[in-house]
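pls design
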Protein backbone atom coordinates (compact mmCIF):
# COMPACT_ATOMS: atom_id res chain seq x y z
CA UNK A 1 0.00 0.00 0.00
CA UNK A 2 1.23 3.48 -0.83
CA UNK A 3 -0.05 6.48 1.07
CA UNK A 4 0.87 10.10 0.92
CA UNK A 5 1.18 12.62 3.69
CA UNK A 6 -0.69 15.09 1.48
CA UNK A 7 -3.92 13.08 1.20
CA UNK A 8 -7.08 15.13 0.90
CA UNK A 9 -9.65 15.00 3.67
CA UNK A 10 -11.92 12.90 1.43
CA UNK A 11 -9.12 10.42 0.67
CA UNK A 12 -8.16 10.23 4.34
CA UNK A 13 -11.72 9.40 5.34
CA UNK A 14 -11.92 6.75 2.60
CA UNK A 15 -8.62 5.21 3.65
CA UNK A 16 -9.50 5.07 7.35
CA UNK A 17 -12.79 3.33 6.52
CA UNK A 18 -11.25 1.00 3.95
CA UNK A 19 -11.18 -2.13 6.19
CA UNK A 20 -14.91 -1.71 6.82
CA UNK A 21 -15.61 -1.41 3.08
CA UNK A 22 -13.46 -4.47 2.28
CA UNK A 23 -15.18 -6.54 4.96
CA UNK A 24 -18.65 -5.59 3.69
CA UNK A 25 -17.59 -6.47 0.13
CA UNK A 26 -16.35 -9.90 1.30
CA UNK A 27 -12.89 -9.06 -0.04
CA UNK A 28 -11.32 -11.11 2.72
CA UNK A 29 -7.78 -11.44 1.33
CA UNK A 30 -7.51 -7.69 0.76
CA UNK A 31 -9.01 -7.11 4.23
CA UNK A 32 -6.31 -9.25 5.85
CA UNK A 33 -3.54 -7.67 3.77
CA UNK A 34 -4.39 -4.09 4.70
CA UNK A 35 -4.52 -4.92 8.42
CA UNK A 36 -1.05 -6.46 8.10
CA UNK A 37 0.31 -3.39 6.28
CA UNK A 38 2.28 -1.20 8.68
CA UNK A 39 1.91 1.89 6.49
CA UNK A 40 -1.88 1.67 6.81
CA UNK A 41 -1.70 0.88 10.52
CA UNK A 42 0.54 3.89 11.12
CA UNK A 43 -1.68 6.17 9.01
CA UNK A 44 -4.87 5.23 10.86
CA UNK A 45 -3.19 5.63 14.25
CA UNK A 46 -1.88 9.06 13.19
CA UNK A 47 -5.33 10.40 12.23
CA UNK A 48 -7.63 8.66 14.72
CA UNK A 49 -7.98 7.02 18.10
CA UNK A 50 -6.30 3.58 18.57
CA UNK A 51 -9.70 2.08 19.45
CA UNK A 52 -10.98 2.75 15.91
CA UNK A 53 -8.14 0.60 14.53
CA UNK A 54 -8.86 -2.09 17.12
CA UNK A 55 -12.47 -2.11 15.91
CA UNK A 56 -11.20 -2.90 12.39
CA UNK A 57 -9.50 -6.06 13.63
CA UNK A 58 -12.66 -7.06 15.49
CA UNK A 59 -14.47 -7.18 12.13
CA UNK A 60 -12.19 -9.99 10.98
CA UNK A 61 -12.61 -11.95 14.20
CA UNK A 62 -16.39 -12.30 13.89
CA UNK A 63 -17.54 -15.95 13.63
CA UNK A 64 -19.37 -15.47 10.32
CA UNK A 65 -16.41 -13.86 8.50
CA UNK A 66 -14.91 -16.32 6.00
CA UNK A 67 -11.25 -16.03 6.96
CA UNK A 68 -9.04 -18.99 7.84
CA UNK A 69 -8.32 -19.63 11.50
CA UNK A 70 -4.63 -18.98 10.84
CA UNK A 71 -5.43 -15.52 9.46
CA UNK A 72 -7.77 -14.80 12.38
CA UNK A 73 -4.99 -15.76 14.78
CA UNK A 74 -2.66 -13.24 13.11
CA UNK A 75 -5.29 -10.49 13.23
CA UNK A 76 -5.94 -11.32 16.88
CA UNK A 77 -2.24 -11.04 17.78
CA UNK A 78 -1.83 -7.68 16.05
CA UNK A 79 -5.07 -6.39 17.56
CA UNK A 80 -3.99 -7.40 21.07
CA UNK A 81 -0.57 -5.79 20.63
CA UNK A 82 -2.22 -2.50 19.58
CA UNK A 83 -4.72 -2.77 22.46
CA UNK A 84 -1.90 -3.27 24.97
CA UNK A 85 -0.10 -0.26 23.48
CA UNK A 86 -3.16 2.03 23.27
CA UNK A 87 -2.40 4.01 26.43
CA UNK A 88 1.15 4.74 25.24
CA UNK A 89 -0.05 5.65 21.72
CA UNK A 90 -2.56 8.13 23.12
CA UNK A 91 0.37 10.03 24.63
CA UNK A 92 2.76 9.66 21.67
CA UNK A 93 1.66 8.05 18.40
CA UNK A 94 5.25 7.75 17.24
CA UNK A 95 5.75 4.98 19.79
CA UNK A 96 3.83 2.65 17.43
CA UNK A 97 6.83 0.95 15.73
CA UNK A 98 8.65 0.31 19.00
CA UNK A 99 5.51 -0.89 20.77
CA UNK A 100 4.62 -3.44 18.06
CA UNK A 101 8.21 -4.59 17.66
CA UNK A 102 8.61 -5.02 21.42
CA UNK A 103 5.42 -7.08 21.74
CA UNK A 104 5.52 -9.22 18.56
CA UNK A 105 9.22 -9.82 17.90
CA UNK A 106 9.49 -13.31 19.41
CA UNK A 107 6.38 -14.75 17.72
CA UNK A 108 7.09 -17.46 15.16
CA UNK A 109 4.61 -16.62 12.40
CA UNK A 110 5.25 -15.75 8.73
CA UNK A 111 2.57 -13.05 8.55
CA UNK A 112 3.77 -11.47 11.79
CA UNK A 113 7.35 -11.62 10.52
CA UNK A 114 6.25 -9.74 7.39
CA UNK A 115 4.77 -6.98 9.54
CA UNK A 116 7.94 -6.84 11.64
CA UNK A 117 10.07 -6.63 8.48
CA UNK A 118 8.10 -3.53 7.45
CA UNK A 119 8.56 -2.00 10.90
CA UNK A 120 12.32 -2.65 10.93
CA UNK A 121 12.70 -0.54 7.77
CA UNK A 122 10.38 2.24 8.92
CA UNK A 123 12.11 5.63 8.74
CA UNK A 124 9.34 8.21 8.31
CA UNK A 125 10.14 9.56 11.78
CA UNK A 126 12.46 8.87 14.69
CA UNK A 127 11.43 6.10 17.07
CA UNK A 128 12.96 4.00 19.84
CA UNK A 129 13.90 0.50 18.70
CA UNK A 130 13.69 -2.13 21.50
CA UNK A 131 16.79 -4.33 21.65
CA UNK A 132 14.82 -7.24 23.12
CA UNK A 133 11.23 -8.10 23.94
CA UNK A 134 10.60 -6.44 27.28
CA UNK A 135 6.94 -5.52 26.91
CA UNK A 136 3.96 -7.72 27.72
CA UNK A 137 3.12 -9.85 24.70
CA UNK A 138 -0.36 -10.68 23.30
CA UNK A 139 -0.34 -13.94 25.31
CA UNK A 140 -0.16 -12.05 28.62
CA UNK A 141 -3.25 -11.77 30.86
CA UNK A 142 -3.25 -7.97 30.56
CA UNK A 143 -6.10 -6.86 28.29
CA UNK A 144 -5.63 -3.09 28.31
CA UNK A 145 -4.34 -0.15 30.34
CA UNK A 146 -6.64 2.86 30.67
CA UNK A 147 -5.07 6.25 31.51
CA UNK A 148 -7.71 7.67 33.86
CA UNK A 149 -6.30 11.21 34.04
CA UNK A 150 -6.34 10.88 37.83
CA UNK A 151 -3.03 12.00 39.40
CA UNK A 152 -3.13 8.71 41.30
CA UNK A 153 -5.99 6.22 41.54
CA UNK A 154 -7.37 5.92 45.08
CA UNK A 155 -10.25 3.44 44.63
CA UNK A 156 -11.75 1.37 41.83
CA UNK A 157 -14.85 -0.86 41.55
CA UNK A 158 -16.00 -3.23 38.79
CA UNK A 159 -19.47 -4.34 37.65
CA UNK A 160 -20.65 -7.96 37.81
CA UNK A 161 -19.39 -9.17 34.42
CA UNK A 162 -16.53 -6.72 34.01
CA UNK A 163 -18.22 -4.39 31.53
CA UNK A 164 -17.81 -1.20 33.59
CA UNK A 165 -15.37 0.17 36.13
CA UNK A 166 -15.66 3.16 38.45
CA UNK A 167 -12.51 4.97 39.55
CA UNK A 168 -11.58 7.95 41.68
CA UNK A 169 -8.24 9.68 42.12
CA UNK A 170 -6.47 10.80 45.25
CA UNK A 171 -7.36 14.40 45.89
CA UNK A 172 -9.46 15.05 42.78
CA UNK A 173 -12.97 14.13 44.06
CA UNK A 174 -14.00 13.04 40.55
CA UNK A 175 -15.76 9.73 39.89
CA UNK A 176 -15.10 8.34 36.41
CA UNK A 177 -17.11 5.55 34.80
CA UNK A 178 -15.24 3.47 32.19
CA UNK A 179 -16.36 1.04 29.50
CA UNK A 180 -13.67 -1.61 29.89
CA UNK A 181 -14.05 -3.26 26.47
CA UNK A 182 -12.92 -0.05 24.74
CA UNK A 183 -11.34 2.04 27.49
CA UNK A 184 -13.94 4.75 26.80
CA UNK A 185 -14.80 7.31 29.48
CA UNK A 186 -18.58 7.13 29.84
CA UNK A 187 -19.28 9.69 32.58
CA UNK A 188 -17.50 12.01 35.00
CA UNK A 189 -19.19 12.90 38.29
CA UNK A 190 -18.09 15.42 40.93
CA UNK A 191 -19.04 14.97 44.59
CA UNK A 192 -20.65 18.41 44.90
CA UNK A 193 -23.57 17.10 46.98
CA UNK A 194 -21.09 15.57 49.43
CA UNK A 195 -19.55 19.01 49.83
CA UNK A 196 -22.97 20.60 50.31
CA UNK A 197 -23.82 17.98 52.93
CA UNK A 198 -20.59 18.76 54.77
CA UNK A 199 -21.42 22.47 54.71
CA UNK A 200 -24.87 21.68 56.09
CA UNK A 201 -23.33 19.67 58.95
CA UNK A 202 -20.75 22.35 59.71
CA UNK A 203 -23.43 25.05 59.88
CA UNK A 204 -24.48 23.52 63.21
CA UNK A 205 -20.99 24.10 64.66
CA UNK A 206 -19.93 27.35 62.97
CA UNK A 207 -21.53 30.62 61.89
CA UNK A 208 -23.11 30.74 58.45
CA UNK A 209 -20.64 33.27 57.02
CA UNK A 210 -17.66 31.08 57.87
CA UNK A 211 -19.31 28.01 56.36
CA UNK A 212 -20.39 29.89 53.24
CA UNK A 213 -16.82 31.06 52.69
CA UNK A 214 -15.54 27.50 52.28
CA UNK A 215 -14.78 26.90 48.63
CA UNK A 216 -15.13 23.64 46.69
CA UNK A 217 -11.37 23.66 46.17
CA UNK A 218 -10.79 23.71 49.94
CA UNK A 219 -13.24 20.86 50.39
CA UNK A 220 -11.62 18.91 47.54
CA UNK A 221 -8.37 18.80 49.50
CA UNK A 222 -10.15 17.77 52.70
CA UNK A 223 -12.55 15.11 51.37
CA UNK A 224 -10.63 12.02 50.24
CA UNK A 225 -12.88 9.30 48.82
CA UNK A 226 -11.89 6.20 50.75
CA UNK A 227 -14.32 3.64 49.29
CA UNK A 228 -16.35 3.03 46.13
CA UNK A 229 -19.02 0.53 45.12
CA UNK A 230 -20.86 -0.11 41.87
CA UNK A 231 -24.03 -2.19 41.60
CA UNK A 232 -23.77 -5.55 39.77
CA UNK A 233 -25.44 -4.19 36.62
CA UNK A 234 -23.51 -0.93 36.72
CA UNK A 235 -26.57 1.32 37.16
CA UNK A 236 -25.86 2.58 40.69
CA UNK A 237 -22.81 3.62 42.67
CA UNK A 238 -21.80 4.61 46.19
CA UNK A 239 -18.95 6.90 47.19
CA UNK A 240 -17.72 7.24 50.76
CA UNK A 241 -15.63 10.17 51.99
CA UNK A 242 -13.98 10.86 55.31
CA UNK A 243 -13.80 14.63 55.53
CA UNK A 244 -11.44 16.51 57.80
CA UNK A 245 -12.96 19.61 59.37
CA UNK A 246 -11.75 22.55 57.27
CA UNK A 247 -12.26 24.86 60.29
CA UNK A 248 -10.08 22.72 62.54
CA UNK A 249 -6.37 23.57 62.66
CA UNK A 250 -4.38 21.43 65.10
CA UNK A 251 -1.02 22.59 66.40
CA UNK A 252 1.72 21.72 63.86
CA UNK A 253 3.49 18.54 64.85
CA UNK A 254 0.46 17.10 66.66
CA UNK A 255 -1.51 15.82 63.67
CA UNK A 256 -1.98 12.36 65.10
CA UNK A 257 -4.48 9.85 63.87
CA UNK A 258 -7.82 10.47 65.56
CA UNK A 259 -7.17 14.13 66.40
CA UNK A 260 -8.95 15.42 63.30
CA UNK A 261 -12.73 15.48 63.75
CA UNK A 262 -13.77 13.63 60.58
CA UNK A 263 -17.20 13.35 59.05
CA UNK A 264 -18.07 10.19 57.10
CA UNK A 265 -20.36 11.13 54.22
CA UNK A 266 -21.94 8.69 51.75
CA UNK A 267 -23.35 9.66 48.36
CA UNK A 268 -25.64 7.46 46.24
CA UNK A 269 -25.45 7.88 42.46
CA UNK A 270 -27.77 6.92 39.62
CA UNK A 271 -25.17 6.16 36.94
CA UNK A 272 -27.75 5.70 34.18
CA UNK A 273 -28.89 9.31 34.64
CA UNK A 274 -25.52 10.59 35.82
CA UNK A 275 -26.84 12.33 38.93
CA UNK A 276 -26.61 12.23 42.71
CA UNK A 277 -29.69 10.79 44.45
CA UNK A 278 -28.93 10.82 48.17
CA UNK A 279 -26.27 12.22 50.51
CA UNK A 280 -25.96 11.63 54.25
CA UNK A 281 -23.59 11.78 57.20
CA UNK A 282 -22.77 8.39 58.69
CA UNK A 283 -20.70 9.32 61.72
CA UNK A 284 -17.81 11.23 63.20
CA UNK A 285 -14.12 10.49 63.85
CA UNK A 286 -14.22 7.38 61.70
CA UNK A 287 -13.35 6.38 58.14
CA UNK A 288 -15.33 4.45 55.55
CA UNK A 289 -13.30 1.43 54.48
CA UNK A 290 -15.77 -0.52 52.31
CA UNK A 291 -19.09 -0.22 50.50
CA UNK A 292 -21.50 -2.53 48.65
CA UNK A 293 -24.79 -2.12 46.76
CA UNK A 294 -27.78 -4.25 45.85
CA UNK A 295 -28.64 -4.74 42.16
CA UNK A 296 -31.41 -2.14 42.20
CA UNK A 297 -29.58 0.39 44.37
CA UNK A 298 -32.18 0.20 47.16
CA UNK A 299 -29.88 -1.23 49.83
CA UNK A 300 -26.30 -0.38 50.73
CA UNK A 301 -23.64 -1.71 53.08
CA UNK A 302 -20.98 0.39 54.79
CA UNK A 303 -17.98 -0.76 56.82
CA UNK A 304 -15.75 1.58 58.83
CA UNK A 305 -12.30 1.75 60.35
CA UNK A 306 -13.73 1.44 63.86
CA UNK A 307 -15.37 -1.87 62.99
CA UNK A 308 -18.92 -0.61 62.48
CA UNK A 309 -21.04 -2.29 59.83
CA UNK A 310 -24.22 -0.49 58.76
CA UNK A 311 -26.99 -1.57 56.37
CA UNK A 312 -29.16 1.16 54.85
CA UNK A 313 -32.57 1.13 53.18
CA UNK A 314 -31.99 3.86 50.59
CA UNK A 315 -35.49 3.65 49.15
CA UNK A 316 -37.07 4.41 52.51
CA UNK A 317 -34.54 7.13 53.31
CA UNK A 318 -35.37 8.96 50.06
CA UNK A 319 -39.08 8.93 50.92
CA UNK A 320 -38.83 9.99 54.56
CA UNK A 321 -35.70 12.12 55.00
CA UNK A 322 -34.57 15.57 53.83
CA UNK A 323 -31.97 16.00 51.11
CA UNK A 324 -29.07 16.04 53.58
CA UNK A 325 -29.53 14.20 56.84
CA UNK A 326 -27.54 12.75 59.72
CA UNK A 327 -27.52 8.99 60.17
CA UNK A 328 -24.89 9.04 62.92
CA UNK A 329 -27.51 9.27 65.67
CA UNK A 330 -28.53 5.71 66.56
CA UNK A 331 -32.03 6.76 67.59
CA UNK A 332 -32.60 8.59 64.33
CA UNK A 333 -31.51 5.55 62.35
CA UNK A 334 -34.74 3.89 63.45
CA UNK A 335 -35.90 1.52 60.73
CA UNK A 336 -33.78 3.15 58.05
CA UNK A 337 -30.62 1.24 58.88
CA UNK A 338 -29.18 -1.41 61.14
CA UNK A 339 -25.84 -1.09 62.92
CA UNK A 340 -23.97 -4.30 63.64
CA UNK A 341 -20.98 -4.51 65.98
CA UNK A 342 -19.32 -7.12 68.15
CA UNK A 343 -21.15 -10.38 67.46
CA UNK A 344 -19.14 -12.73 69.72
CA UNK A 345 -15.92 -12.15 67.81
CA UNK A 346 -15.17 -8.49 67.19
CA UNK A 347 -13.40 -7.39 64.07
CA UNK A 348 -9.69 -6.91 64.74
CA UNK A 349 -9.68 -3.19 64.06
CA UNK A 350 -11.76 -2.44 60.97
CA UNK A 351 -14.18 -3.91 58.51
CA UNK A 352 -11.94 -4.78 55.57
CA UNK A 353 -14.69 -5.47 53.05
CA UNK A 354 -18.46 -5.98 52.72
CA UNK A 355 -20.61 -7.77 50.14
CA UNK A 356 -24.27 -8.37 49.32
CA UNK A 357 -25.37 -11.39 47.26
CA UNK A 358 -27.27 -10.67 44.02
CA UNK A 359 -30.50 -12.12 45.43
CA UNK A 360 -30.27 -9.64 48.29
CA UNK A 361 -30.48 -12.26 51.01
CA UNK A 362 -26.96 -12.67 52.36
CA UNK A 363 -24.78 -9.93 53.81
CA UNK A 364 -21.08 -10.57 54.39
CA UNK A 365 -18.33 -8.68 56.18
CA UNK A 366 -14.71 -9.66 56.73
CA UNK A 367 -11.79 -8.65 58.91
CA UNK A 368 -8.29 -10.10 58.90
CA UNK A 369 -9.35 -13.45 60.35
CA UNK A 370 -13.15 -13.52 60.61
CA UNK A 371 -15.96 -13.70 58.08
CA UNK A 372 -19.49 -12.93 59.30
CA UNK A 373 -22.63 -13.74 57.35
CA UNK A 374 -26.11 -12.36 58.02
CA UNK A 375 -29.39 -13.70 56.67
CA UNK A 376 -31.51 -10.66 55.79
CA UNK A 377 -34.64 -12.74 55.19
CA UNK A 378 -34.58 -14.04 58.76
CA UNK A 379 -33.05 -10.86 60.10
CA UNK A 380 -30.26 -12.51 62.07
CA UNK A 381 -26.64 -13.52 62.15
CA UNK A 382 -26.32 -16.71 60.09
CA UNK A 383 -22.82 -17.90 60.96
CA UNK A 384 -19.33 -16.82 61.89
CA UNK A 385 -16.45 -18.41 60.05
CA UNK A 386 -12.95 -18.27 61.44
CA UNK A 387 -10.43 -19.06 58.75
CA UNK A 388 -6.79 -19.84 59.40
CA UNK A 389 -5.16 -16.60 60.60
CA UNK A 390 -2.85 -15.02 58.07
CA UNK A 391 0.81 -14.37 58.68
CA UNK A 392 1.66 -10.91 60.06
CA UNK A 393 3.07 -9.91 56.66
CA UNK A 394 -0.29 -10.47 54.96
CA UNK A 395 -3.59 -8.69 55.25
CA UNK A 396 -7.11 -9.07 53.90
CA UNK A 397 -7.76 -6.46 51.23
CA UNK A 398 -11.04 -7.41 49.56
CA UNK A 399 -14.06 -9.69 49.54
CA UNK A 400 -15.74 -11.16 46.45
CA UNK A 401 -18.50 -13.59 45.57
CA UNK A 402 -18.79 -15.95 42.61
CA UNK A 403 -21.48 -17.99 40.87
CA UNK A 404 -20.64 -21.20 42.71
CA UNK A 405 -21.73 -19.77 46.05
CA UNK A 406 -18.14 -19.29 47.20
CA UNK A 407 -16.81 -16.25 48.92
CA UNK A 408 -13.33 -15.16 47.94
CA UNK A 409 -11.24 -13.38 50.54
CA UNK A 410 -8.23 -11.70 48.97
CA UNK A 411 -5.10 -11.38 51.05
CA UNK A 412 -1.99 -9.49 50.11
CA UNK A 413 1.71 -10.01 50.64
CA UNK A 414 4.05 -10.15 47.65
CA UNK A 415 1.37 -11.84 45.59
CA UNK A 416 -2.38 -12.23 45.72
CA UNK A 417 -4.08 -15.17 47.43
CA UNK A 418 -7.76 -16.02 47.19
CA UNK A 419 -9.26 -17.96 50.12
CA UNK A 420 -12.25 -19.96 48.89
CA UNK A 421 -15.06 -20.59 51.38
CA UNK A 422 -18.42 -22.26 50.74
CA UNK A 423 -20.91 -20.09 52.59
CA UNK A 424 -24.21 -21.71 51.69
CA UNK A 425 -25.30 -24.92 50.04
CA UNK A 426 -28.09 -23.67 47.79
CA UNK A 427 -27.37 -21.99 44.47
CA UNK A 428 -27.05 -18.24 44.41
CA UNK A 429 -30.12 -16.76 42.77
CA UNK A 430 -29.40 -14.44 39.86
CA UNK A 431 -32.78 -12.74 40.27
CA UNK A 432 -33.41 -9.29 41.63
CA UNK A 433 -33.52 -8.63 45.36
CA UNK A 434 -36.06 -10.27 47.66
CA UNK A 435 -39.47 -8.64 47.94
CA UNK A 436 -39.08 -5.70 50.31
CA UNK A 437 -42.01 -6.89 52.46
CA UNK A 438 -40.08 -10.04 53.32
CA UNK A 439 -36.95 -8.12 54.26
CA UNK A 440 -36.18 -7.52 57.92
CA UNK A 441 -33.33 -5.15 57.45
CA UNK A 442 -34.20 -3.08 60.53
CA UNK A 443 -34.49 -6.09 62.81
CA UNK A 444 -31.09 -7.70 62.52
CA UNK A 445 -30.19 -9.24 65.85
CA UNK A 446 -27.20 -7.62 67.47
CA UNK A 447 -25.41 -10.14 69.64
CA UNK A 448 -23.77 -8.68 72.74
CA UNK A 449 -20.82 -9.83 74.81
CA UNK A 450 -23.16 -9.51 77.80
CA UNK A 451 -25.27 -12.66 77.55
CA UNK A 452 -26.11 -15.73 79.54
CA UNK A 453 -23.83 -18.76 79.41
CA UNK A 454 -26.55 -20.76 77.62
CA UNK A 455 -26.91 -18.19 74.84
CA UNK A 456 -23.16 -17.97 74.59
CA UNK A 457 -22.89 -21.76 74.20
CA UNK A 458 -25.62 -21.85 71.53
CA UNK A 459 -23.79 -19.19 69.54
CA UNK A 460 -20.51 -21.00 70.02
CA UNK A 461 -21.94 -24.14 68.44
CA UNK A 462 -22.75 -22.18 65.29
CA UNK A 463 -19.14 -21.24 64.70
CA UNK A 464 -17.50 -23.03 61.82
CA UNK A 465 -13.73 -22.86 61.76
CA UNK A 466 -12.54 -23.87 58.34
CA UNK A 467 -10.02 -23.11 55.68
CA UNK A 468 -11.16 -24.87 52.53
CA UNK A 469 -8.46 -23.94 50.09
CA UNK A 470 -6.21 -21.10 49.11
CA UNK A 471 -5.73 -20.20 45.46
CA UNK A 472 -2.77 -17.98 44.62
CA UNK A 473 -2.95 -16.11 41.34
CA UNK A 474 0.28 -15.03 39.72
CA UNK A 475 0.18 -11.61 38.11
CA UNK A 476 3.33 -10.02 36.65
CA UNK A 477 5.54 -7.99 38.97
CA UNK A 478 3.41 -8.72 42.04
CA UNK A 479 0.43 -6.69 40.79
CA UNK A 480 -2.49 -6.88 43.22
CA UNK A 481 -6.12 -6.82 41.94
CA UNK A 482 -8.21 -4.00 43.39
CA UNK A 483 -11.52 -5.45 42.15
CA UNK A 484 -12.67 -8.79 40.71
CA UNK A 485 -15.84 -9.37 38.71
CA UNK A 486 -18.60 -11.65 40.02
CA UNK A 487 -17.88 -14.27 37.34
CA UNK A 488 -14.19 -14.32 38.40
CA UNK A 489 -13.08 -13.69 34.82
CA UNK A 490 -11.86 -10.10 35.13
CA UNK A 491 -9.74 -8.11 37.57
CA UNK A 492 -8.75 -4.47 37.87
CA UNK A 493 -5.42 -3.22 39.19
CA UNK A 494 -4.01 0.30 39.42
CA UNK A 495 -0.76 1.66 38.00
CA UNK A 496 1.71 4.07 39.55
CA UNK A 497 0.93 6.79 37.03
CA UNK A 498 -2.83 7.15 37.48
CA UNK A 499 -4.06 4.33 35.26
CA UNK A 500 -6.15 1.19 35.69
CA UNK A 501 -5.39 -2.19 34.11
CA UNK A 502 -7.87 -4.84 33.03
CA UNK A 503 -6.72 -8.47 33.46
CA UNK A 504 -8.18 -11.67 32.01
CA UNK A 505 -8.03 -14.07 34.98
CA UNK A 506 -8.67 -17.08 32.75
CA UNK A 507 -5.15 -16.60 31.35
CA UNK A 508 -3.48 -16.30 34.74
CA UNK A 509 -1.54 -19.12 36.31
CA UNK A 510 -3.09 -20.34 39.55
CA UNK A 511 -1.69 -22.44 42.39
CA UNK A 512 -4.10 -24.25 44.73
CA UNK A 513 -2.92 -25.29 48.19
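designed seq:
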Amino acid sequence: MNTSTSLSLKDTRYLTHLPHHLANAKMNDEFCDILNDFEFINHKISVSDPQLLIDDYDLGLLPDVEISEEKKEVLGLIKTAIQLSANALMEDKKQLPGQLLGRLKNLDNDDINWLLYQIEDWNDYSWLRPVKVNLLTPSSPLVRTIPTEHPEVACVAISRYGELALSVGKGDAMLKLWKLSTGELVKTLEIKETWNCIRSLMSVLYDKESVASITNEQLRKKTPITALAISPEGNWALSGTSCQDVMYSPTPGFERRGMYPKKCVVELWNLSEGKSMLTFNMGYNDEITSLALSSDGKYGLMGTLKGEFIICNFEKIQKEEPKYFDLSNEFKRGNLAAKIIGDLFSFCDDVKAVELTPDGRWVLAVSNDTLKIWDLLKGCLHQIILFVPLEPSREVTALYLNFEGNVIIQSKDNSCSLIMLKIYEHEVSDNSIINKIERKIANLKINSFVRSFINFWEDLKKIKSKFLKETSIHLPLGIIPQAISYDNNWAISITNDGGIQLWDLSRIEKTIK
